[in-house]
Amino acid sequence: MSNFTSRQVKAQETKENLLATGLKLFHEKGFDNVTVDSIAKACNVSKGAFYTHFDSKYDIFLEKFKNIDAFYSSFIPTIPQDISAREKILFFYRGQLTYLRDDLGKELIRTVYSSALSLTMTEDHYLTSPERNLYKIIFRFVEEGVQAGEFKEELTSDVISMLVTRCMRGTIYDWIIFGDRLDPVEEIQKMTTVLLDGLQRNN
Amino acid sequence: MSNFTSRQVKAQETKENLLATGLKLFHEKGFDNVTVDSIAKACNVSKGAFYTHFDSKYDIFLEKFKNIDAFYSSFIPTIPQDISAREKILFFYRGQLTYLRDDLGKELIRTVYSSALSLTMTEDHYLTSPERNLYKIIFRFVEEGVQAGEFKEELTSDVISMLVTRCMRGTIYDWIIFGDRLDPVEEIQKMTTVLLDGLQRNN
DNA sequence: ATTATTTAGATACTCTGGTATGTGACTTGA
DNA sequence: TCAAGTCACATACCAGAGTATCTAAATAAT
Predict the structure, then answer these.
(1) I need a surface site. Which of A15, A98, B77, B164 has the fewest CB within 10 A?
(2) What is the per-residue pLDDT across A154-189, written as a single tens digit (0 to 9) for each?
(3) Any idea which fold B6-55 has?
(4) Where in chain B are the domains?
(5) Closest Cα of chain A to B49: distance in Å?
(6) Which member of B110, B173, B190 has the closest CB to residue A170?
(7) pTM higher than 0.85 for the full model?
(8) For the domain bounded by A6-56, which CATH number is listed?
(9) By the 8 A CB rule, do A134 and A165 touch?
(10) What angle, 0 to 180 degrees and rounded to 10, lies between the N-to-C axes of helices B85-99 and B128-147?
(11) CB–CB of A117 and B163 under 8 A?
(12) Alpha-carbon torsion, ordered B183, B189, B190, B192, to 10 deg
């Protein structure tokens, strides 16, 4: 005995259908080459139906983008405990960029990074929550490093975390605009290594 | 005796009028809140006229964005000759970000950075030419530094230039998405200092 | 001078994301 | 059980970027 009425069940089916179809089409033809109408039609449903389930065209793969949090949760435990903060950050970024490159794909990331620019980030911009999560993860590593005296004393954990995450955003941005001339995993490695060298306490 | 016919003169006037009016409106109301129609109407001209002079709405402030090259040309000579490459880069970035912040404004930069993401950068993406110029400037400083033995030997000038310019792109991206919580001049200073520390040859 | 050609600009579209509103099947409450 | 309300979805629309096509005036060619 389900809690759901038959309407709710059908609605849920429609929503999932739209979601799956939308993601499939985005993957095949790229975000800008897929119309909301075409997604709806492919599901034998009207555009109006689409908009009862999703607020915007973007929303549909935000659903997918939210997977990134699931990725974080499953990836973090695989990071060795007995290495330096520096190593942890590099390990994490390598894993993250590999995931972005191989699982989510450049097109998806392009749209996410593009729409983050669209409006001044108000409280509930969807990029915020995964980003906030990412920031928290990096912040944790950084704090460990600060405690262990790995980093320059004059910088706070907040500042360091900001720079380290910016390093990642810059690399991802470059990956998108320079396209296949760049391998994001290689690039994050190079960039972060140098930045962390610069953050290192030098006695 | 001008080389131009009266038609060409009038057309040029119309174009300049559209350009000036467009920039004024963008500045007043923000790029997304200005329609091509409204620009045209404000010039007592049709939308069709707009599109004979410009390929797209974006084009209109690309014209302005090209000013950035003029800025480079006038700013470079003010950079002291007798300082290290590191200092030159910092000096240049400070000047550049100040210019972006105070003269071009965040809204303009937002649109530029946003549309750079729109399509895979093909040869003639408009961002390319100012960027290419910027890259060349940084590359020149970096080469000086490499020659002078300022930087880690294992990195090529190309790689270093890429990281240094990425540093800037990342900072600008952050400026846009985090809004007024960030001062771009301060941020580029912090970020670049750390990165350059990491690039420094350590004997 | 007259005809042919070019071209700045106007008009009337298309396309697409998103909205306002309508509707009929289902659900709920008395 | 039946009236009232809700909700998934449909239809018809709007706005705004960009395009295709036309026109009339200016220019060039004969």
Answers:
(1) B77
(2) 999 999 999 999 999 999 999 999 888 899 999 999
(3) Arc Repressor Mutant, subunit A (1.10.10)
(4) 6-55, 66-199
(5) 27
(6) B173
(7) yes
(8) 1.10.10.60
(9) yes
(10) 160
(11) no
(12) 130
